[in-house]
């Protein structure tokens, strides 16, 4: 979890207030990842991902690990909006992925 160590306290607080359980589900769909994939990629237990996405309480470190791992894939998160692709993403968003992201935002 080196990204946690190098991120500032302010950055961590912003992420904690912007990244939601719905974002996690939407981001996984956009990436074609299962809960197991996200857990493995973020270095957290599968049960932690399941709890978070079920709107149960999880430790801040888990939320940060999930958010930072998804952000590493080029996704950005804002309250009230579906995840979007950030400027650092290489390549283009496939049309099917764009439609899925739009559909699950409704």
Automatic annotation (TrEMBL):
- Domain of life the protein comes from: Bacteria
InterPro entries documented for this protein: Cro/C1-type_HTH, Lambda_DNA-bd_dom_sf
GO molecular function terms attached to this record: DNA binding
The protein in question is named XRE family transcriptional regulator
User: In which organism is this protein found?
Assistant: Pseudomonas poae
């Amino acid at each position: 979890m080196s990204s946690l160590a190098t991120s500032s306290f302010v950055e961590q607080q912003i992420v904690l207030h912007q990244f939601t359980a719905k974002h996690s589900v939407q981001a996984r769909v956009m990436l074609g990842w299962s809960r197991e994939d996200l857990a493995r990629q973020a270095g957290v237990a599968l049960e932690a991902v399941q709890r978070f996405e079920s709107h149960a309480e999880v430790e801040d470190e888990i939320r940060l690990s999930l958010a930072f791992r998804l952000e590493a894939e080029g996704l950005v998160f804002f309250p009230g909006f579906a995840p979007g692709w950030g400027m650092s993403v290489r390549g283009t968003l496939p049309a099917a992925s764009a439609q899925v992201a739009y559909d699950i935002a409704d």
